Amino acid sequence: MDFNDGFRQHQRGVSLIEAVVATLVLGVAVLGYAGLEVTGLRTTNEAFLRENATYLAIEAKERIRMNRAQNEFYLTTSNWVTTGTASCGAGYADCTSDQVAVHDISELTQLAADYLPNGAIGVTSCGTTNEVENCIMVSWASTTVSTCNPASATASKTNCIEVVVYDF
Questions:
Q1: Per-residue b/e over 78-100, b at no fewer than 16 CB within 10 Å?
Q2: What is the pLDDT of residue 92?
Q3: pLDDT for residue 8
């Protein structure tokens, strides 16, 4: 009787090749899961930035509507890059509409810089023939207010939002 033949017939367990294949399959699955996690984090961060930008645009819209006497000041693009602040006492009680507009723009540009990476905000004409249509642009990262074009073919990659406002 040959002892080797009997041993081979009853051998149980895992061979080295099977263990390597199982490890390889497990490794691919773990890498796939890690990729999903990274994509999820990136998407969550983008949604957070878009939420902050939308908040800033709506805040700008409300402030402009509250101070209708200064519509032309708000619509002057060059006023949105100033860092001036209005000092007229506590709150808005002692402020003129000019001072409120300067304060609003200063505060909104500071909020954009604080809540968005390389954030900026501005108000421009939307480029339409409709005189009562204006756009509040909020941009971040490598996009600037002047290069913001959410309607472009690569809008999903554009780091800006545009809020169209009628009748400032």
A1: ebbeeeeebebeeebeebeeebb
A2: 63
A3: 59
DSSP letters spanning the chain = --HHHHHHHT--S--HHHHHHHHHHHHHHHHHHHHHHHHHHHHHHHHHHHHHHHHHHHHHHHHHHHTGGGHHHHH-GGGGG-------SSTTTT--HHHHHHHHHHHHHHHHHHHSTT-EEEEEE-SSS-TTEEEEEEE-TT--GGG--TTSTTGGG--EEEEEEE--
Q: 21-30, 33-42, 139-148, 155-164: which has the minimum mean pLDDT?
A: 155-164
Prediction pTM value: 0.72
Edge-first strand order for the sheet with 133-139 is 120-125, 133-139, 160-166
pLDDT at 2 over 70: no
